[in-house]
């Protein structure tokens, strides 16, 4: 039996694993045995999600044929099985009718951070070449966009970790802001554990005492939405105590005087009052970062999913630059990518304003280069469209998208203000969803297309380090299931643009290499063969003689001046603050056993047994005030909706804050879609709520 070396379908670690053929499965298809592999990222480790990933390949809920509404145009009629020909006919008719009546931009696509680089690239090309529309964005807008925007404007490049994950084990001080890798990506903890075993000190900033915080030297518990204050306050202390690296600032950066001036108003007493973090903890954190190096500052969604998320990420980047951390060995600033291909998915054209290689769609030179690779006139390419939530909020409205194709995303669960999302989806003239299961979003569709799973396809992914790796086919998909690349190619053919597309992953990747050449995310020197022989290649890699770039910024920054830019940022209140009607703060996040919207993991028995339902984490003092006991059902209510969850009492969370996981429908009925003005990231991490025992229902 031939074993296949491939990678986990879940988070951005992209852990290595081996799939070995076994007896046929319950669907009558070849089965596989899954084992961890000695890949440089996971080093033989897997989390519970990774170990059970193969359970989904033959799951009885799996979509095995296209589905269409029994009564065309009536989404209240049941879905029935259909041929691909019928499904395509309905989709193409809807596209043509809409574009004829409402214009090219009335048809759009919403992609996902789990798509391979080849599929993300082909989807962006499909929308702009086959549909000739500007209407495309993806769920990564809800994940990495704020940190990406801050990194681009300050460092000239957005790569989540500008160094290999293994470097974390060598850092002597690590500050984790809004990150809980112990639950979100457990195999990564081996690097933190190794560092601590060698004497490193870790500081965790989180309103909850998470499993990551349990092992930290310090745990800072700020009020959600005040991380920018915390960062500026730490920089204030560093300046006052003489801990900033003046030589580094002079030699390698620009713009520091404005930032220095801005921090004058963030004296420790004010910062403590606004954040709730004691002054002594502020000073100890800065002292460790400045004097016990090498040091790293790592941010994640807890710091970034805010209406000021870009500026918050920028504040932590400013601190890292002022301390001279960036570009030095085992040191620096990084952000922890969440989705499996969250990094690659945003580099090659799924975002509304981007072309492959992280090029700007409004840049004439970028348009000319990519159009040349695609074989079209640059003037045919549309202008930039709107961001993910803006697209959703405009569905069905005048000037908005009327026909939408959703791939690898379950926006009914994952997008903010989910009641509004459902309402907008229902206003569409036509909805198509491609998925492996009938997700909550697919359940609203006119046409549902079954798609191949991770072990049934070829392609590349780019992990949180910027390491491009290969996903390999271990078994064929079920007979009537097609890969997204095939569907994109066949639909393009039905639309009269088939000559521009192919469903051969290797051919698509070769074109991607040419399209990305010379861009920020340059893959030109990366081939399938190199990935195989080198266990992944780090971008940028401009030619085949180039070794790849595991570590960025050692000599210079890819900015016009070659220097990193400080950017002044000031605190502003969260878009929604508690008041007498909604007196508490809700923050959302992950549990260890589930992933993203739960469309996959909620179907794995071992994971649902371990965590069968969502639980609202509430401090005992807050629970006592409302007569709530551990295990009671509680109703959480915001200005947008309500959700009922079972209470989990914990003294590890702030008494003014409630935590809810977003893997089930419910939490995002509450969240606020207020957008960051720079990144268009919604404010997932802060909204005002009230709570009561579900039996009572009064506030």
Automatic annotation (TrEMBL):
- Identify the InterPro entries for this entry: Asp_de-COase-like_dom_sf, MoPterin_dinucl-bd_dom, Mopterin_OxRdtase, Mopterin_OxRdtase_4Fe-4S_dom, Mopterin_OxRdtase_prok_CS, Prok_molybdopt-oxidoreductase
Q: Tell me where in this chain the 4Fe-4S Mo/W bis-MGD-type domain is found.
A: 1-61
**What's in the keyword line of the UniProt record?**
4Fe-4S, Iron, Iron-sulfur, Metal-binding
Pfam families recorded: Molybdop_Fe4S4, Molybdopterin, Molydop_binding
Q: Which PANTHER family does the entry link to?
A: NADH-QUINONE OXIDOREDUCTASE SUBUNIT G, RESPIRATORY NITRATE REDUCTASE
- What protein am I looking at? Molybdopterin oxidoreductase family protein
**Lineage, uppermost ranks:** Bacteria, Bacillati, Actinomycetota, Actinomycetes, Micromonosporales
């Amino acid at each position: 039996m031939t074993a296949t070396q491939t990678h986990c379908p879940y988070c951005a670690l992209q852990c290595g694993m081996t799939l070995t053929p076994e007896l046929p499965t319950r669907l009558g298809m070849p089965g596989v045995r899954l084992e961890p592999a000695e890949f440089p990222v996971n080093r033989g480790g897997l989390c519970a999600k990774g170990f059970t990933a193969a359970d989904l390949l033959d799951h009885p809920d799996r979509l095995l044929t296209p589905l269409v509404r029994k009564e065309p145009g009536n989404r209240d009629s049941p879905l029935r099985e259909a041929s691909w020909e019928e499904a395509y006919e309905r989709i193409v008719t809807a596209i043509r009718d809409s574009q004829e009546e409402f214009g090219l931009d009335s048809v759009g696509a919403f992609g996902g951070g789990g798509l391979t680089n080849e599929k993300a690239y082909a989807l962006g090309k499909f929308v702009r070449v086959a549909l000739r529309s500007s209407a495309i964005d993806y769920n990564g807008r809800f994940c990495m966009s704020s940190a990406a925007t801050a990194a681009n404007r300050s460092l000239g490049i957005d790569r989540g970790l500008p160094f290999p994950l293994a470097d974390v084990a060598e850092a002597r001080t690590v500050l984790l802001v809004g990150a809980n890798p112990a639950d979100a990506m457990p195999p990564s903890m081996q690097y933190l554990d190794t560092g601590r075993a060698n004497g490193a000190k870790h500081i965790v900033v989180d309103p909850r005492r998470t499993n990551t915080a349990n092992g930290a030297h310090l745990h800072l518990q700020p009020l959600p939405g005040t991380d920018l204050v915390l960062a500026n306050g730490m920089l204030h202390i560093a300046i006052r105590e003489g801990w900033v690296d003046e030589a580094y600032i002079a030699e390698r950066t620009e713009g520091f005087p404005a930032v220095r001036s801005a921090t004058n108003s963030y004296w420790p007493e004010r910062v403590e009052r606004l954040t709730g973090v004691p002054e002594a903890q502020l000073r100890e954190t800065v002292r460790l970062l400045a004097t016990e190096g090498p040091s790293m500052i790592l941010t994640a969604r807890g710091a970034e999913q805010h209406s000021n998320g870009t500026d918050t990420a920028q504040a932590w980047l400013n601190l890292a630059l002022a301390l001279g951390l960036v570009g030095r060995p085992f040191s620096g600033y990084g952000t922890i990518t969440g989705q499996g291909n969250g990094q690659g998915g945003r580099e090659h054209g799924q975002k509304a304003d981007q072309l492959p290689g992280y090029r700007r769609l409004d840049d004439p030179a970028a348009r000319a280069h990519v159009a040349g690779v695609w074989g079209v006139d640059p003037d045919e390419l549309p202008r930039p469209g709107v961001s993910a939530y803006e697209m959703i909020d405009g569905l069905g409205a005048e000037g908005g998208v009327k026909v939408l194709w959703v791939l690898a995303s379950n926006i009914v669960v994952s997008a903010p203000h989910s009641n509004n999302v459902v309402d907008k989806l229902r206003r569409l003239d036509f909805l198509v969803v491609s998925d492996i299961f009938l997700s909550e979003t697919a359940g609203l569709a006119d046409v549902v297309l079954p798609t191949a799973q991770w072990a049934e396809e070829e392609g590349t992914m780019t992990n949180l380090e910027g390491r491009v790796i290969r996903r390999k086919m271990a078994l064929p998909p079920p007979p009537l299931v097609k890969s997204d690349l095939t569907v994109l190619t066949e639909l393009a053919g039905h639309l009269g643009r088939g000559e521009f597309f192919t469903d051969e992953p290797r051919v698509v990747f070769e074109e991607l290499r040419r399209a990305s050449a010379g861009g920020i995310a340059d893959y030109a020197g990366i081939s399938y063969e190199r990935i195989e022989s080198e266990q992944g290649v780090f971008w940028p890699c401009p030619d085949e003689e180039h070794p790849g770039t595991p570590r960025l910024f050692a000599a210079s920054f890819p900015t016009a001046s070659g220097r990193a830019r400080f950017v002044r940022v000031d605190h502003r209140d969260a878009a929604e603050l508690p008041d007498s009607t909604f007196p508490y703060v809700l923050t959302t996040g992950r549990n260890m056993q589930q992933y993203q919207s739960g469309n996959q993991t909620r179907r794995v028995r071992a994971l649902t047994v371990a965590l069968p339902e969502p639980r609202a984490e509430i401090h005992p003092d807050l629970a006592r005030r409302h007569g709530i006991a551990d295990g009671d059902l509680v109703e959480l209510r915001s200005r947008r909706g309500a959700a009922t969850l079972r209470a989990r009492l914990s003294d590890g969370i702030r008494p003014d804050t409630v935590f809810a996981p977003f893997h089930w429908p419910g939490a995002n009925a509450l969240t606020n879609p207020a957008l960051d003005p720079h990144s268009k990231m919604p404010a997932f991490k802060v909204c005002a709520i009230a709570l009561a025992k579900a039996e009572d229902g009064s506030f």
